[in-house]
Amino acid sequence: MFFFFPVLVIIPVFCPVVSVDQKHSVLVGEFVTLQTGLTDTQNYDVLRWKFGPQHSTIAEVNIKDGKVSTFDKTFTDRLRLDYRTGSLTITNTRTKDSGLYEIDIIKSSSYTIQKSYNVTISGESIKHFSVKINLFRSSLSVKERDSVMLHTDTEIQYDDSILWMFGDIVIVSWSIYKAKRHVSIYNGPDGIFRDRLKLDDQNGSLTITNITTQHAGLYKLQITTSRHTVNRKFLVNVKGESVKVSILCIFFTACG
């Protein structure tokens, strides 16, 4: 006599883990950073950013190869990727940048975490219902060929990150990771900032040395912490023998 016993076969199915949508609203010309929430990408293999209804890949971090790549010509060198966290920054935003952004955080063939971000770029004033906004204005004058410091007025903490921009061009990216500071300083268009930029390693303030008229313009600062994001603008006007700096500081602090 033969006995047949039912056998339960379990076939693993690896489905993506999908997070709740996040929403971001900024003005045209500003920059926006889409945070992944990761503090260490080394636990994953690939981070892939996608945009639009076609889910087109626009940027990718390949952890194994140590490569950071951007693909979509629509953004014309306006995308910046943080290798440490995988966060994506879109600079000089335009209305056509509005839409759905997605990231696939891939761990080999075992699982994929998906996050989505609804981004709205507006040319008009934006009402923020979940943030407190405080405005501060001040000015500073120095002589041409002297140095000028753009102050963050804060102390940088563990896992904070800083992005300095001149117009729409990133000139300094700075972060603290595993108690180590990681700084990238760029020369800017036509190398106008070569050997002129100095960053305070305690508070992230930026000093421009031997300043001239070609350094006049709008400087933007974004400080991202685990608690809030701070955005500031510094308008530097160089006239003859003096430099005038007008500062518009906007603090975005998440409400409880």
From TrEMBL:
Q: Which residues form the Immunoglobulin domain?
A: 21-122, 137-239
Q: Which InterPro entries match?
A: Ig-like_dom_sf, Ig-like_fold, Ig_sub, Ig_V-set
Mind listing the UniProt keywords for this protein, alphabetically? Answer: Signal
Q: Secreted as a keyword?
A: no
The signal sequence is 1-19
- Record's protein name: Uncharacterized LOC107694005
* Gene name of this polypeptide: si:rp71-36a1.3
